[in-house]
Amino acid sequence: MVVEADGGARGNPGPAGFGAVVREAATDEILLERSGALGTATNNVAEYSGLIAGLRAAAELGATHVAVRMDSKLVVEQMSGRWQIKNPGLRPLAAEAAGLVSRFAEVSFEWIPRERNRAADALANRAMDEAAGKPVPDIGSVRDVGSASDREPQPEESTPTASWAPPSLEDATRLILVRHGETPLTAQGRYSGRGDVPLTDEGEAQAMAAGARVAGISRDVTAVVCSPLARCVRTAELIAAELGGATVSVLPDLIECDFGQWEGMTFAEVQQRWPVELAAWLKSTSVAPPGGESFQAVAKRVRGVVATLLQTYPSATVVVVSHVSPIKLILRDALAAGDAFLHRLFLDPAGVSVVDTWPDGGIAVRSVNETAHLR
Q1: Beta strands 14-23 and 248-250: pairing type?
Q2: Annotated binding residue at 23?
């Protein structure tokens, strides 16, 4: 399905509204329309509100693959992870949108010119007119309605205009993310992707300590899931034992990134042999190591895992045992962070992170890389 979304404010900030339509990709038929007034808000807040409304509508229709089209360069670039979210007031909205994105198998973002986004723009303006008490003609479907927007493209606002408080934890699905314990390659600082190396004795001790920490967070764990590689399976088994013998399920898409020809090498060795390729890899998540897998590819399969877990275990606690790359990507999406986050965050062996997600798409990252249990 295709989601077209927009939002605007008459003044910045000023009276604001949003609109969104969901189309059948093959026929261009409009399946659902969403719109609403926001009171006084800014253009960017309204645009994010339109995106959230459109994603919710697509979810209602049971969409699995969604193409989002917006004329907001800011929202498209931020949701694609290419631009940082500098305004604290937009971060909760971006996090809510990212939570909704994680529920689909695949979501793409495309910038389109204003004239191609007339339907969503018309809905946003209709919502603003209705809120202002202006007479609104009965125009039926917005498919053929021209743009009535009086907006000019705006930079990201500097004044926070939105706030968000997490609802009751009773409704949240909690993912406790645990990196596997130490392996021989971990201890040597080498790229460890698809190679099936076991835990060291220290790694086993770390996994048991992580199990104790998980039990301290919650003993009411519904499921323990893990990557198919031995270092994760063993870590998950030791955590499950600490929880009283919970069943461990293997999810193939939680496997580590395939580092191709870099497998088993240190960063310095890779930099010496593949300086150009390494620089390109560090610059873009679309670039894969020679013979390996890009972070964009990893993100796609990991988002599918998260979406499945949220659907399968609503309002429950799930322990997810995986590797550096999948866990970083889950945290990046939860925090609505940019791609630079991936190379700035360090995850220790057996480090623990906690993410709560609510049915309406709200997200709270409770902790990142807890390691006190390892000392």
Answers
A1: unpaired
A2: no
Q: Which of 131, 161, 180 is the last residue of a domain?
A: 131
158 located within any domain = no
User: Checking DSSP bridges between strand 317-322 and strand 223-226, what pairing results, if any?
Assistant: parallel
Cα–Cα distances (Å) from 299 to 74, 81, 129, 203, 274, in that order, read 21, 11, 40, 26, 24
pLDDT at 148 over 70: no
Domain assignment of residue 137, yes or no: no
Binned at pLDDT 50, 70 and 90, residue 373 comes out as very high
Residues 6+ apart with CB under 8 A from 228: 250, 251, 252, 254, 255
* The total number of structural domains that make up the chain: 2
pLDDT band per the 50, 70, 90 thresholds, residue 147: very low
Model confidence band, residue 361 (pLDDT cutoffs 50, 70, 90): confident
Backbone angles phi, psi at 368, to 5 degrees: -135, 125
For residues 213 and 74, membership in a common domain is answered with no
The residues assigned a catalytic role are 180, 256
CB 355 within 8 A of CB 366: yes
Q: Mind listing the pLDDT tens digit for each residue in 170-184? A: 688 999 999 999 999
pTM tops 0.70: no
Q: Which amino acid is at 305?
A: V
Q: How far apart are CA 63 and CA 56, in angstroms?
A: 10
pLDDT band at 157 (very low <50, low <70, confident <90, very high): very low
Q: Which of 254, 225, 234 is nearest to 316 (CA)?
A: 225
Q: What is the pairing mode between strands 106-111 and 248-250?
A: unpaired
